[in-house]
Amino acid sequence: MSCSPQQAQAEKLTLLVAANKTGYFGVHLNNAGKPKPYKAEVTRGGKSVNLGQFATDEEAALCVARSPEGRAAAAERAAAPAPLTSEEARQQAQAEKLTLLVAENKAGYFGVHLDKPSKPKPFKAQVRRGGKTVHLGVFATAEEAALHVARTPERQAAASERAAAAAPLTSEEARQQAQAEKLTLLVAKGKTGYLGVHLAKPGRTKPYRANVWRGGTEVSLGMFVTAEEAALCVARTPEGQAAAAERAAAAAPLTSEEARQQAQAEKLTLLVADSKTGYFGVHLGKPGQPKPYQARVKRGGRTVHLGMFATVEEAALCVARSPEGQAAAVRAAAAEGQGTPPAVPSGASLKEEGTVPPMPPGAFVKAEGVAPPMPPDAFVKVEVVVKEEEGSGGRPKSQRTK
After folding, report:
1. Which stretches of the chain drop beneath a pLDDT of 70?
2. Coil/strand/helix, residue 51
3. SS3 for 143?
4. Angle at 334 between CA 332 and CA 337, to 5 degrees
5. How many whole angstroms separate alpha carbon 3 and alpha carbon 135?
6. Closest listed residue to residue 181, CA positions, set 247, 108, 121, 243
7. Can you give the pLDDT at residue 368?
8. Fewest 10 Å CB contacts: which of 36, 200, 257, 317?
9. Pseudo-torsion of CA 162, 167, 168, 173, nearest 10°?
10. Helix (H) or strand (E) holding 39
11. CA dist list (Å): 149 to 68, 81, 102, 103
12. CA separation for the pair 336, 338 (Å, rounded)
């Protein structure tokens, strides 16, 4: 067994691997079947220099590693960044404000070719420069190769030229480009159907305007033939990507049953009320809209808006999570534990079953049907209905205490 790897480690040298028959940089199988079949060589001053013949490929690789050329190659590899994944290449292009231009070829990108399938770096990047094809290198992913193409003066000049007088993208092409760049064309409730896109000049060649809000100022991104192309322009901006991330992070609306289950899991109480919605702090703000229910509470003497929700229970869950909702739930629970009616907000009504409430002075009392006095230990059933300050009617829901 060769001790060359251990010797290289002891000398702090690197046996550089390569995609060739021997597996090592600068090592060639020169005389198969001979005692020393492996040749070590380097390129020095533009010429190939033979460093000797060796019995094993590791021994030849050690000889190469000891040479100035081998040390320089090892240092260059160590300094070179690790290959980028497809996602990392896209993010880097985005950070540099470059476009990985898609193309109808095997690699899927302009200037990128699938050169050596099954190799660690199968994708080749190249451009035309001065009438000649210039090789930019080989890469692990098509996106990393496309990034190197996008960085070239040729590609950037072409991008500027295309931006100035490029054929407009059709709606389908814009969607495909967004998909290739892993961007989201954000829909919105407007005439165009997309966030940041406006129908500014109907009847013109490029009627759609794309704009974003940046630093408190509305910034125009240009005019476009289709709404989708304008939406693609918005999606490429930092503002568009931030909006897409925010939407992705937002949870899907909870159904009524899911909201109840979540409240139970969090040990919260959805407080019922005598209002149109049936829940404390919940109001029907926008009937007919996807999120018609508004959750709000009184805080520091002011009404605080907590958001709009698809179901009344989800809005009630939001109220129940608030400090005000939790305080109201604690008061109700404490009152139930004492067997007395909880404190009722201003405007609330208190109904008692089985007892006659005190009558004001001078009030008329009808003798018929008056219940006899109740013994001290009689069972009293108390029903509390919390009445919202705004709105009445609807379905009353109640909390009962015994």
Report:
1. 1-2, 158-166, 249, 251, 338-402
2. strand
3. helix
4. 110
5. 38
6. 108
7. 44
8. 257
9. -100
10. strand 38-44
11. 32, 17, 12, 13
12. 5
The CATH class for the domain spanning 4-79 reads: alpha beta
CA distance 206 to 233: 14
Q: Mind giving me the DSSP string for 91-136?
A: HHHHHTT----B-SSSSSBTTEEE-STTSSS-EEEEEEETTEEEEE
First to last CA, the chain: 89
Which stretches within 43-85 are classed as H helix?
Answer: 57-66, 68-79
pLDDT at 236: 93
Dist. CA 311–CA 60, nearest whole Å: 74
What is the four-CA torsion angle of 59, 62, 66, 72, rounded to 10 degrees? 140
- For residue 263, the surrounding DSSP H or E stretch is helix 256-265
Q: Which one-letter amino acid corresponds to residue 30?
A: N
Residue pLDDT, tens place only, 267-295: 899 999 888 999 999 999 989 888 999 99
Q: Give residue limits of the domains in the chain.
A: 4-79, 86-165, 171-249, 256-357+378-401
Among residues 96, 189, 191, which one has the least CA distance to residue 147? Answer: 96
Which tokens go with 317? Answer: 């869950």
Residue 261: name the closest of 213, 322, 313 by CA.
313
Per-residue tokens: 196: 């940041």
Predicted structure pTM score: 0.32
**Per the structure block, which two tokens stand in for 297?**
């509470």
